[in-house]
Write a structure and sequence with these properties.
The complex is a heterodimer. By secondary structure, chain A is α+β, with helices and mostly antiparallel strands. Chain A has one domain (about 1-205): START domain (Alpha-D-Glucose-1,6-Bisphosphate, Chain A, domain 4, 2-Layer Sandwich). In chain A, about 30% of the residues lie in helices and about 35% in strands. Chain A has a seven-stranded antiparallel beta sheet with strand order 1-7-6-5-4-3-2. Chain B is an all-alpha fold. Chain B has a domain at about 5-55. In chain B, about 50% of the residues lie in helices and about 0% in strands. Chain B is built from three helices and no strands. The radius of gyration of chain B is 16 Å and the shape is flat. Classes of the chains: A alpha+beta, B mainly alpha. The interface of A and B includes residues 19, 41, 90, 182 and 185 of A. Chain B: InterPro entries: MDM35_apoptosis (IPR007918).
Amino acid sequence: MKFYSDSSVLNFCWEQVAVSFWQRYPNPFAKHVLSEDVISRKVIDQELYSKRLLRKTNKMTNWVKKFSGGESFTYIVEESIVDPIRKLITTYTRNIAMQHIVSVEEKVVYKQDPENKDMVVCERKAWISSPLRFGASGPVCSFVHKRFKKNSLKATEGFRHVLESMFSRNDQSPSMNIPGQMYMSKEMMTEGAKKATEYAMKIKPLIPKT
Amino acid sequence: MNSISPECQELKEKYDACFNKWFSEKFLKGNTKDECSGLFEVYQECVKKAVKDHKIDLWELEKPVLGTDKEKKDPS
């Protein structure tokens, strides 16, 4: 078994992180995430319990492929609890395919920085284990551990990217702290992209042809 | 984001839009009354069929781990 833990900071308030949490896919840092569906969702005692099913590509080295029968994707279950009173999001993620080769379980807690309410601390822990025998589990765990470390950084980068595109960092007006005003529909984003394109078209003639 | 099945895509988008609005405008402000249950039900019917078609391990999918003693513990 291999254990991994890290901690990172998101320079956004907890409400913004909570809103983006559900909209963090797709993003350019998570091209390996192919699909995402809600499997169950309920509110218990003011807390939101959700379960989502994700399908991800599974890029393995050739020697791991030999064990896996060449499967090119895997399924991940993400359980989460959002507690808006204590300002906590807790997630637990595990693979539900290919456990005969390797199991990765990950727990992440997003909590408001106790010293700065405009920041969220993200604490990540992961456990990697393999039931393989004859000395194969060690190298498999080491390989997956190394890849997990890389992907964990990418996951945080992807989350930051989504947060930045949803909530302009330049706009620090107090209204940004009101959750109701933070929701950005797909239409709003499309509208923004359209305006940017129109603007780019307008300034194009100013650029001399080379 | 894509759904597991293209057949569920439209239902997913409608539900997600309703949920995201509810989550930011109601849930985070303390109003927890569900407003998207109709959209969720039809979307779920579609997803359940897709999960079956993809031969996903239902027992593993439904098993709760978060908040139970099945969660992994920190190495001591």
